[in-house]
Amino acid sequence: MRGTTRRLVAVAAAVTAVVAAAPTPAQADDRRPYVKVGYFTQWGIYGRDFPLAKVQQSGAAARLTHLNYAFGPVTADGVCASADPWADWQVPFSDARSVDGAADVAGQPIAGNLHQLAELKAKNPQLRVLISLGGWSGSAYFSDAARTDASRKKLVSSCVDLWLKGNLPGLAGGVAAGIFDGIDLDWEWPGSEGNAGNVIRPEDRPNFTRLAAEFRSQLDRLGRANRRHYDLTAFLPAAPAKIEAGFEVDKIFRYLDFGTLQGYDYHGTWEPRTNQQSALRVPPGAPDDPDFSVETTVGAWLAGGAPRRKLVLGLPYYGQGWTGVAGGGSGLFQPATGPAPGVFAAGTEDFKTLAKLPAQGYTVHRDLRSGHAWLFDGTTFWTYDDPAVLLQKTLYIRTRGLGGAMMWSLDGDDDHATLTRTVSAGLR
Q: What share of the chain is helix, strand, coil (3-state, %, to 5)?
C-alpha cells in the first residue's frame, strides 16, 4: 500500500506541475463554489443493482452539488413523460436498498426512485436534484416540440406539471412536488445527427434558444410563486460541427444556469483502431487531424462566446475498449479486431471493473502532458480516467476558470466513491 501511495503522490505532483505550467485566463472568482454534478440512471436499479442508497452509503451524495436523474423522454405528442413509471414511482425498496434504511410499505403516497430522491435530499440539504430530459434514446421528438411558440409552451408546461409540480399519472395531485429543483436539457442533438430516427431541422439552432427561453420563463414564474429558484441546465456536445449546427452560443447562456460539456466519447469502438476517449489535449502522434480533446471542446465554446464559469466539464466514469490489438508497444493508436468484452455491453466498461485490471496483467500507461491514461495487456486496450487523470482535470477546471465538473455516471464508480471523492477534493 505504501508503494501505491508513493506512486500516486508522484503522479499528483507531476500533474500539478504540468497544469501549473499551462497559460491561465484572467483570474476566476474562486469565491463562487464549483458545481459537482453526478448523473444517476433510472435503469441502474435493475441489472446494475445501483439504487440511490449506494449514492448515500458511498459518501458520493455528500460531495455533490447536483444530481441529474436520467432520463425523462419527450413524446411524439410533444409532452414530457416517464420512460419507466415502475422505476420512477412504483417499485418498493427494501430496508437494505433504501436511503433512510426503512423499507417502503403498502399505501405510502409514492415509492420508486422519486421517493428515494426525496430521502436523499433530506439527508443532504446541499443537494439539488434535476430531471434530465431526452438523452441519446429520448431525443427523437425534441425538434417537433421546439418548432413553434405553441409547441414549446405545451412541452414546457407538461414538464413543469409532471416533474416539478409532481402531478404523476394515477396518483394524488402534487404527490411528487418539491423533489426536483430544476430541469436539465439533454437534447442530443439539435440540428445534427444523434440516435437513428431523430427528427432534425436546420431551424433547431434558433429553436433551441427559444425553447431554453420558454423553460426559463416558466421556471421563473413557478419560482416566484414558490419563492425559490429552479435551475435550468443543458448537456452540450463536444464536436465543433455539432455546436455550430445546434447552438447560438452567444445567446443560450442567458437562460441556462450552466451547461455541461461532453468531455468523453471522443473516440470509441466504432473506429477500427485504439485511441483516447477523453484526453485533455490531443496526444502527439494522434492519427486524426483535426481531432477531439477537452481543450478543443472548451475552446470551441469559449470562442462562440460562452461564459467560462457557466461551462462545466463532463468526466467519464467508464472506459472504451478494443481487443485483438496489433502493433505492439503501449497499444495506443494501433489497429484492433473489434470491441473488447464488457460486463454490460461490448466495448465499454465501468471504472470499478477497470480499476481491477492491473492486478490481472494489464499495465497502466499515462501521458501527463496530454492528460489521459490507458490499460493494455498486449491484446486488449482500455482508455479511461483514473483518479490521477481526474485530479489533473480538476486542476484544469480551476486553472481555466470553468464552473465545475459533471460525471457520467455515478454507477460506474466503486463502492467507496473513489472518483467522486477525487473530484470533490480537487474542486474544494
A: 35, 20, 45
